[in-house]
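Internal ticket #5521
Category: modeling
Description: The requester needs a full-assembly model to guide mutagenesis choices. All entity lines are attached below as received. Residue total reported by intake: 810.
Assigned to: D.W.
Attached entities:
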Amino acid sequence: MTRKQKRLAMIGAIGLVLAVATGMILVALQDQIMFFRSPTEVVQGKVKPGEAFRLGGLVETGSVVKEPNQIVRFVVTDGANTVRVTHQGILPDLFREGQGVVTEGKLDPGGVFNASTVLARHDENYMPREVADSLKQQGHWKDGKGESKGAKP
Amino acid sequence: MIVEFGHFALILGFAVALFQATVPLWGAIRGDAVLARLGVQAALVHFALLALAFAALTHAYLVSDFSVLNVFQNSHSLKPLIYKWSGVWGNHEGSMLLWVLILALFGAGVAVFSKRLPDDMLGATLGIQGLIASAFCAFLIFASNPFLRMPNPPIEGRDLNPVLQDPGLAIHPPLLYLGYVGFSIVFSFAAAALVLGRVDAAFARMIRPWTLAAWITLTLGIAMGSYWAYYELGWGGYWFWDPVENASLMPWLTGTALLHSAIVLEKREALKTWTILLAVVTFSLSLLGTFLVRSGVLTSVHAFAVDPERGLFILLILIAFIGGSFALFAARASALQGGGLFAPVSREGALVFNNLFLSVASLAVFVGTLYPLLLEALTGAKISVGPPFFNLTAVPLMVPLFLAIPFGQKLAWKRGDLLGAGQRLWICMVLGVVGAAISAYAAGGGPVLALAGIGLGIFLVLGALDDLLERALRGGTGMILARIRAIPQSITAMALAHAGAGLMVIGISATAFETEKIAAMKPGETLALDGYTLRLEGIGPVTGPNYNAIAADFSLRDPSGAELARLRPAKRVYIGRQMPTSEVGRYRHGLSEIYIAIGETSDGQHVDLRAYHKPYVLLIWLGPLLMSIGGILSLLDRRLRIGVPARRARLRPEPAE
């Protein structure tokens, strides 16, 4: 092979790998992403049946019920609408009533959100950004509740 | 007083950085050796000033000076000493100060160790390092100053986020930063080479120790962070494909590619522009990581404070450096002469293969990390790209790479013999398949992919070690010891690093065989877990220095009934922030672990728990540790250092490897 042919073969091989990888990325972006929905969006029927998505909002005060076999039920609200959630497993450390939460799962036919994962937060001040945004949209945002502002001694 | 002193040192350090960014660079371009050499003094003084500033802030933390806003927000007088110390970088401002300190450390390192560099190269490199330092000093002083005082000092501080109060977290950020920021000096070398138009084998030798040092610490930093997530967050997971983890993985992938392409440049003077591009891209990804983590565009444990002004500032720095370096690259890269020819099947070809797959894997991670941000900015739709995306893209891309490693090690430079390599590797392949079959038998079946992964890992480890064995046995059985001693350190290093990758693959594949049990237990009840028995002996309160806890006391028995250990997982509530965290209980046997995390004990009688048996889980972190040891060995190889006279070889002159 001449220098030029070698170079062409090399570029061809590299192009092939890139093309395959791009294809994989595009397919995965189509199928493997999850949308974030607020309770209002769920109530409005924006979720397709059987679609896995992330549900976020505040845990409604007084709604947490613990049942045997580590099943826990609670209600997620964005102030305007609510969605009932069930989860089997141990809740993360910072799961509390009246605080922000993000859950992952699917709606069951009865309209109850079956959460496979309840996401842990790492900080008591920390409000998931998606939750903060959706609360702002619903006009229920209180400044200083989620953001860690400068010190007020 | 000491705080003001530190503040002043920081400002003075900024001024020196501005000097370093202009005068030596000017000298290098004009060919004035005296001006260029001024960079050495400037880099040393800059480092000394930043070290003083950092020491001053550390002092404020150690004495709990709550009149400093930063200390008040992130410290507590009851906190154990080590966490007062690590609290310095457990927050936004302090961690940025550490970032700049490490930047200065690498500049000073070049000033001390690379005095034999040509004057213009040294001046230009330190000048560009000074440019980066100036930008980040300005960011510290104007947008995130850790030395600000408060008019009415409070008596007690707000404490450090409790999940950060852990020995792992005391060393994870400095290690990670050493890696991240370490690539800055490689970037500075690359930019200097572009400015001066000189990229050759000597350039590859110059950047080699710095690339290696940054890569070693980044490897350790990522592994440390993963280990911390495993034992501190209480989920039993080790990698979440969290955007912040990805931000550290991307420079690691391209940095690993850079490490390998620099070898081709050094030995064969090929891949010049590509190596420069990788150096630029790697540091750009480090900057991008800093931006993602520090700007608050992501939600993560690492996003300390959400402040749009800071985000904008870092974004501007990011655009200036990435844009500037790519413009420089576009303008000057064509001036670089093409290098030597090689056949596709050769050591060079194998390293190109390595670079291709590492870069494309990095691209996949890049898309998965930034696509949600892009989509939200464009359409407002909020999505999350989680593990399934990366398992479908980045993970399959690593498989051909891992398969190719043992072959690459066997191929000669210029023109290799793939068939010969295959003949020498078939035993390793067979042993890999046998190993997978044995695991399948021992575990009573299992997912095919996981078994294939175990086989692949065994093939990698054996293939790496086979290289050493072959060198020891080459040419008869006599003088084996002498021949082992004559194996160049860099070859041993390569074998260890690749074996480390194999161990990690085995560890990750073995997670498919773990057992998870979720239960609620009362004292006296038992739980069976893969032949082991856990018995809850009691639940009780524990008081720590700055927290109260509820701890469960478990006894762990093996199948014969003998007690192996007592495990005490706990739920802690930290006094300063009233924030609960989990402490897990772990029992190690061999390379496997029993792992228990408890949930709430609201009624005081039951305890919710999650128990795991995780076979060979420790390999996930021992693998990267072995990779780093390989890196350290390679760094210490005298033959490859500049300006160090080579020791006489004991047997015969070493062939170029």
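Resolution: model delivered.
Comment from assignee: Chain B has four domains: 1-165, 197-412, 417-512+620-640, 515-614.
Ticket closed.
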